[in-house]
Design brief:
Helix content is 38%, strand content 21%. The chain has 15 helices and 20 strands. A hairpin with a 5-residue loop joins β19 and β20.
């Protein structure tokens, strides 16, 4: 394996032709296929659970890598179900639909155009966790040719996207008729990834008029593909030109969604999850109280619903949950950590502050179509435009920085805890120091030899002050 290939808990990524070649892709696919066989039916014999769902985003290296993945999987006896060019959440749902042993999504998500990656999905439709990913890496380190047996077969599944959209529209939390009555005009930017046809189809089925840019699926990203405010100038212009009620942008594999308000102002990805929380929990509160008598004094108090997010997610999500009577549970950074906690706690909703909404009524994975439908449900029910919804809630500023990583972080953490002795301390993932209206998170990067510092406060100056103090302590320790 190449020295610079980036191996994570749930997959591998690298620069195409340099770190990630067809040979490397085939090796990792063989390893994952072997893990699927071990996980499902031991080392011998084929049976239920030996199939693997394979899908890809629109990157130009996708077709060649899909062929390499298929060759690797079938060489170790796995059957392949090819769903084609689809969103990553569609692959996850197809794994569950086919009762497959796992899935591989070929996508580098929001990474620049020269990157690609393999994301490994378990039989439950959730990305692999630490122990599972470690086992796949061990198998990938073995010499080529291990575990050879009767080759698997390949079938296609052209209906995966349609099943995905049908499932979204059947969700009880989605007010399909209410959205259709509003006849929203929605501006859409899919960055020429996998999301153009999927998101357009969803919006049109919801009765929206779609004004789109970058809806082609050729993988030739016209801008940096991450849907952060600085990359959404074209969408902002489109919103104003079309007189749209809002703009939405998705990343290349359609698991993250960012919002532009009706004035053309990007509002930040954290609001995607905050609005989704209000859509789900606000609707539940309405249904619980509509037409019911006051409960008796002897009735048991209701259990507070849980909302799960990671340690670096904005306080706007916490505020939304609190307003709806829910408690927030925070996890280490990483989608799989959030997903596992959602399942463990039977949480109502969860996600990440990067625009990733995870609604377990469908599945415990980030899903931009779900996020869009919940957002439109909130707008249809509330009646206010996006800008007024934002203005009605507390505002925060987030500041991020990074510093070189030293030989040990424990002295840094200890010094920060002494410096901020009045803070609530969380050590699940590095060190998070929190107060009611601000926090500082210091953690080692999983992909670079650096320490990441991220702070949030009610003002940019307040957040910058926390980051500066964290940087000073790092330098002094």
């Amino acid at each position: 394996m190449t020295d610079t290939l980036m191996v994570g808990v749930s997959g591998v990524r690298g620069i195409v032709g340099k770190d990630l070649t067809e040979g490397v892709v085939a090796r990792w696919a063989r390893a994952f296929g072997t893990w699927v066989r071990e996980n499902g039916k031991g080392e011998t014999g084929k049976g239920k659970g030996s199939s693997v769902v394979v899908g890809r985003d629109a990157r130009t290296s996708g077709p060649a890598f899909a062929a390499a993945v298929t060759a690797g999987l079938t060489s170790v006896g796995c059957d392949v179900v090819d769903v084609g060019l689809v969103p990553t959440p569609t692959v996850q749902l197809a794994v569950e639909h086919h009762h497959a042993g796992g899935g591989i999504a070929i996508t580098a998500s929001h990474n620049p155009i020269e990157w690609n990656a393999l994301k490994f999905i378990g039989p439950d439709g959730i990305f692999l966790d630490g122990a599972e990913g470690t086992r796949v890496a061990e198998l990938a380190a073995k010499p080529a040719g291990y575990g050879m047996r009767e080759a698997g077969c390949v079938t296609t599944d052209p209906g995966a996207v349609e099943r995905h959209l049908d499932a979204v529209l059947r969700l009880l939390a989605i007010d399909v008729e209410g959205i259709r009555k509003r006849k929203f005009t929605v501006a859409l930017d899919a960055v020429r990834g996998a999301g153009g046809p999927v998101m357009r189809a969803l919006l049109e089925r919801l009765g929206c008029e779609v004004a789109g840019i970058n809806l082609e699926t050729d993988g030739r990203f016209p801008r940096p593909p991450e849907p952060v405010p600085e990359n959404l100038g074209g969408l902002s212009t489109l919103v104003r030109r079309a007189g749209a009620a809002l703009g939405i942008a998705v990343d290349p594999d359609v698991d993250r969604l960012a919002i532009v308000d009706e004035t053309g102002a990007p509002i930040g990805e954290d609001y995607t999850l905050a609005f989704a929380v209000r859509a789900v929990l606000g609707g539940q509160a309405d249904s619980r109280t509509a037409g019911r008598e006051r409960p008796s004094r002897s009735a048991r108090p209701p259990v507070r619903p849980s909302v799960v997010c990671n340690l670096s997610t904005s306080l706007v999500v916490e505020d939304a949950a609190r307003e709806c009577g829910a408690e927030v549970v925070r996890t280490p950074v990483g989608e799989v950590h959030v997903a596992r906690a959602i399942v463990r706690l039977a949480a109502v909703i969860g996600g990440e502050g990067n625009g990733g909404v995870m609604y377990p009524a469908l599945h415990a994975g980030r899903d931009a179509p779900v996020a869009a439908a919940l957002l439109l449900t909130l707008l249809a029910r509330d009646g206010r435009p996006v800008s007024e919804l934002v203005a009605a809630a507390p505002r925060y500023a987030i500041v991020k920085a990074k510093v070189a990583r030293g030989p040990a972080l424990e002295p840094v953490y200890a010094a920060l805890r002494r410096r901020f002795a009045d803070a609530h301390v969380d050590t699940q993932d590095g060190l998070r120091l929190a107060w009611r209206d601000r926090w500082l998170h210091v953690r080692p990067s999983n992909t670079e030899p650096i320490v990441r510092l991220i702070a949030e406060a009610t003002s940019g100056a307040g957040a910058q002050e926390l980051v500066d103090e964290g940087r000073r302590v790092c330098a002094a320790s």
